[in-house]
Amino acid sequence: MTETITIRRPDDWHVHLRDGAMLKAVLPFTAAQFSRAIIMPNLVPPVTTTAMADAYRERIMAALPAGSRFQPLMTLYMTDDTDPADVVSGYESGRIVAVKLYPQHATTNSHFGVTDIEKIHPVLAAMEKAGVPLLIHGEVTRPEVDIFDREAVFIETVLDPLVRRFPGLKVTLEHVTTKEGVEYVTGARERVAATITPHHLIFNRNAIFQGGIRPHYYCLPIAKREEHRLALRKAATSGNPRFFLGTDTAPHARAAKEAACGCAGLFVAPVALACYAQVFEEEGALDKFEAFASLNGPRHYGLPVNEGTITLVRRPRAVAEDVSLPAGEAVHVFRGGETVSWTVADADSAAAAVA
Ligand code: NCD
Ligand code: ZN
């Protein structure tokens, strides 16, 4: 049995860090495991301009544990009014790496999102020309579409037409959750890729209703049937360079989730690499783990791979239930209260102790 895994240092291509006290509490977990992360812009108000991204980046850098070399990669939140010139200059000056498209009302803080894709055609054309990647939350939000079909309908009615209309645009289908999504990305033209979360590889939709309603399994896109989970596991562990790591770690205070109308999002950062490693081990694909975690993402984004390595050891670790916030609040940790079998042994940031 494999006892240690050493891979080139990985990146997380989809992270919600929030702001203020929450940022300070959750950032060390991501910084301890990952060299870089794409930072989602769905703050309140959202990060819609390069100047706002600069300011958010400063707050992230100020919240980092001393000695950390973690690099946040900033993104803009696309609205109907996004300025193509700001996007292109922000990208060309290295201050942003991508723009995120949320269909309006698709998820947490997406009420500012795009109302009609036609409205953003000029900015997409500018992004295509300048090579700016588009990150997509791939769900339609029309009320007549069943929540479990939202991704598949989005792919057919929005994503595929967009990918064809802008043939040079670099596109990431974020947190793919369906076999239709996997098939689409596998067969799409060049420059189309997808991130896969740890949680969508680990549970299916039954977990949300196991013995009662379980808000700590509720995220968007919502977990689907078992056949979809199996398709995701196959894609992630296949070595196909179009699939790579993006945790979608999305912390919310317990009170915001354990409520009559609970927020979507799971705080997976503390167990992210442990969960992925377990999946690759179970699939007999540890030899493909480095490609998924550390090579495929940089390749899609045209960035260098990281220097240095990270080592995971087989060492059972009890996962704390919660991470505390000031004022007595807490964030439940995915798999909190359980034991994971892989532990980061040599993360070189000052926050190593937390991973
Ligand atoms: C995310 C959040 O809370 O910001 N929630 C989630 O369920 N994934 C938003 C998102 O990425 O959809
Ligand atoms: Zn997300």
Primary descriptors:
single chain, 355 residues, alpha/beta, TIM Barrel, 8-stranded parallel sheet, 3-stranded antiparallel sheet, 11 helices, globular, disordered C terminus, binds N-carbamoyl-L-aspartate, binds zinc ion, EC 3.5.2.3, Amidohydro-rel
Describe the protein:
The protein is of the alpha/beta class and 355 residues long. The protein is 33% helix and 17% strand. The strands form three sheets. The chain has an eight-stranded parallel beta sheet with strand order 2-3-4-5-6-7-8-9. The protein has a three-stranded antiparallel beta sheet with strand order 1-10-13. Residues 348-355 have low confidence and may be disordered. The structure holds N-carbamoyl-L-aspartate and zinc ion. Residues 16, 42, 107-108, 137, 219-220, 248, 250, 264-265 line the site of N-carbamoyl-L-aspartate (NCD).
